[in-house]
Amino acid sequence: QVQLVESGGGLVQAGGSLRLTCAVSRDISSFLYIDWYRQAPGKQRDFVATINTGGSTRYTDSVKRRFDISKDDAKNQVFLQMSIRKPEDTGVYYCYTPGDHWGQGTQVTVTS
Question: What gap in Å lies between CA 76 and CA 13, rounded to an integer?
Answer without folding.
Answer: 29
